[in-house]
Structure formats: C-alpha cells, structure tokens
Design a protein that fits this description.
The protein is an alpha/beta fold. It has one domain: NAD(P)-binding Rossmann-like Domain (Rossmann fold, 3-Layer(aba) Sandwich), CATH 3.40.50. The chain is 35% helix and 14% strand. The chain is built from 9 helices and 7 strands. Helix 1 crosses helix 6.
Length: 279
C-alpha cells in the first residue's frame, strides 16, 4: 500500500501496531489527540488531531488505501464524554473514507458490543448486539455504521471485537486474553486478506477457555498462537471462589457488565503497570 492511516497511535495498542504497520506501506500516517509519539519511524508521519473534528479527519484520510481505526475514549463513561471521540469520530472516519475512495477500514471494536451475553452461551460472530454500557453502545453503533457503508458504498470493514488485550491478571482473562503478538497478527490479517467485505472477528488468543466462536471468520486467516492456560492455576488460586450471580463473572463484558452505566470500569480490570493507558 502507498498510504496507511492509524488512529489512536499514541495509545497502548496503537503503540504496538506502529512498527508492524509501517512495514506494510510506503507511508504510515499516525494520528492521535496526544501531543506526539515516541520516535517516529522513517516512513511515519504524525498528525495531532481530534477524531471529532471532521475537517481534520478528512485531511488525514485523504489518499489512504486503508485506515486502522483504534482511536477512542477507552472506558465506560457518561454519554457526553463518549459522544465526540467514539460516536462522531467513527462517523467522521467512514464519511472521510467515502469521500476519498478508501478501500477498507479495520476497526477496534470490542466484546462490550455483546457484553451482556452470558459466557456460557459461547457466542459466535453473528451474536446479537447486547452492549454493557455506553462504551459498548458506541461499538454497536460503529459496527452498524460500518455495515451500512459496506452495503451502500462498498467500503470494506473488518470489526475486531477485542476481548482483553492486556497481561493476564484476573480469572476472566484466562479465557479472554489476546496477546500483543496475536493482536498484531490479527490486524495484519485484517489488512492483507484479499476480500473482507463486512467482517466481524473476535480478538482473542488460542485460549483453551476462550468463550467465543471465531469459526465464521476463518476467511480472514487469523490463526492465534498464544494460550492463557499457562496462567490459569495461579490466577484461579489467587482469586478464590467467584460469585456466579455477579454479572461481572458470568457475562462476557466482565466488570463492564456489573458497573453502573456511565461509570468507569477500567479500575475493576486490575491491569498491571505495563497495561495502563488508552489503547
């Protein structure tokens, strides 16, 4: 590709993606609301911009073959907080792509789009939307937006329903873990697969206890290698007996499912220092 755009480039997950994406294109345009990024790569340009600013997003997207859209406010929060970056921002990306002939958008969706489904359902990629808060609702909105732009305008979209891309520190993550290496592999396959149309795929590693079914997205060629079972014995022993009536334990959304709408849920994920910051 000649030009690839990465939003959320200063975030946690975006930071892991910059170098691999730079190898897939002549020019990588990284953008975020942050002042800057660490050590731009030789073929990387950084643009500070607000997702909610359409003119800024249009300028960034112009001439791009594809957009990897990882920018967002990453937590449950009041609707007014999420409206600009997570709702309007998604519209701005897709509309800018339409105006400038961008071929495909790879979107960092989330398990929180279906977070209120019980984990015992072993849901597939066709599971009905059941958001666990405004954050999950924004993911539902963007998935539907992406489908509409595919159906009406022919813009391909791969929506990555990421479960938990962070170090394994809690019982939920034994099933939901997406390692950083597998995350990079997932994004690479979402970019280089010849035909994607509108696709949904769960971002999860090859965990023995993965609670979702990715068989309907095998056409993307994603074959994860890492497995969180290596952490299970220690994590389960430290956690003790879990309350089966707590939605945070039995729903896919974890703490987001049990946290009141509009209130931060990130603290309940018990992330370690290596996983702090937005992704």
């Amino acid at each position: 590709m000649k030009k690839l755009v990465l939003t959320g480039a200063a975030g946690r997950l975006g930071s892991y993606l910059r170098a691999p994406l730079a190898k897939m294109c002549d020019t990588l345009v990284s953008t975020d609301i942050a002042d800057g990024i660490d050590t731009p790569l030789p073929n990387e340009t950084y643009v500070q911009a607000d997702l909610a600013d359409f003119e800024a997003m249009e300028a960034v997207v112009k001439g791009a073959d594809m957009v990897v859209h990882f920018g967002a406010f990453v937590d449950e929060a009041p609707f007014e907080t999420l409206l600009g970056p997570n709702f309007v921002g998604s519209y701005n990306i897709w509309e800018a792509a339409r105006r400038h002939g961008t071929r495909r958008i790879v979107y960092a969706s989330s398990i929180h789009a279906v977070g209120m489904h019980p984990k015992t359902d072993a849901i597939g990629i066709d599971a009905a939307h059941r958001p666990d808060g405004f954050y999950g609702l924004a993911k539902c909105f963007t998935e539907d937006l992406a489908r509409m732009y595919w159906d009406k305008e022919g813009i391909e979209a791969v929506c990555l329903r990421i479960l938990s891309c962070a170090n394994v520190t809690n019982p939920r993550a034994v099933g939901s873990w997406l390692s950083y290496d597998d995350m990079i592999h997932l994004v690479e396959r979402a970019i280089d697969t010849p035909i994607a149309g509108f696709s949904i795929i769960y971002g999860v590693s090859n965990n023995d206890r993965a609670p979702v079914d990715n068989s309907g997205a095998r056409h993307l060629g994603y074959r994860p290698k890492d497995n969180a079972e290596q952490f299970a014995e220690q994590i389960y022993a430290e956690a003790g007996v879990l309350d089966p009536q707590d939605p945070g334990n039995f729903c896919h959304g974890g703490p987001f499912a049990s946290t009141p709408i509009g209130r931060s849920a990130m603290m309940a994920l018990n992330l370690d220092e290596d996983d702090t910051g937005q992704g």
